[in-house]
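Figure 6 in text form: structure in, sequence out.
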């Protein structure tokens, strides 16, 4: 093949070196500019108009109230209930089988009763993560029914999920 086909290599290497130097210089310049923009942002005399002129982020000064109907429009959490000996493992959220994708938008409330029609519902817990283990400590087999609901940050409850009944061994 000879040396004719390799004439581009020095040019390619020079271009890579120039790009690396340019990227390094850009990182240094960004660091300096970020430092100055942070100093401008925290300065007491900086107005929102000046921030906008300089292209800096302008904080939202208007408080937005939480829509009271939003929690009612949100579907109830899906659930997966796994009974064990004297305890029940409660999985809930948008995908109860995959805990890694179960970011809970609100607090989940679990209620249980034995049976719910006879004794009424008993509040168990406000849960901010899934799974939650409900330790019953029963000495004989028992049947428990659960239902779940989201609660918004102001404490307003959403709609309940369908009830699920499980038998728990002692």
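Output sequence:
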């Amino acid at each position: 093949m000879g040396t004719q086909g390799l004439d581009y290599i020095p040019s390619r290497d020079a271009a890579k070196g120039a790009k690396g130097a340019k990227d390094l210089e850009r990182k240094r310049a960004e660091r300096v500019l970020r430092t100055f923009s942070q100093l401008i942002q925290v300065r007491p005399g900086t107005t929102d108009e000046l921030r906008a002129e300089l292209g800096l982020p302008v904080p939202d000064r208007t408080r937005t109230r939480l829509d009271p109907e939003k929690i009612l429009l949100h579907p109830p959490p899906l659930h997966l209930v796994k009974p064990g000996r004297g305890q029940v493992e409660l999985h809930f959220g948008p995908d109860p089988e995959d805990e890694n994708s179960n970011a809970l938008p609100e607090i989940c409330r679990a209620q249980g009763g034995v049976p719910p029609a006879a004794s009424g519902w008993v509040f168990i817990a406000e849960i901010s993560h899934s799974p939650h283990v409900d330790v019953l400590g029963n000495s004989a087999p028992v049947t428990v029914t659960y239902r779940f609901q989201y609660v918004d940050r102001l404490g307003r409850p959403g709609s309940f999920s369908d009830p699920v009944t499980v038998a728990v061994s002692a």
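Caption detail: The chain has a mean pLDDT of 83.
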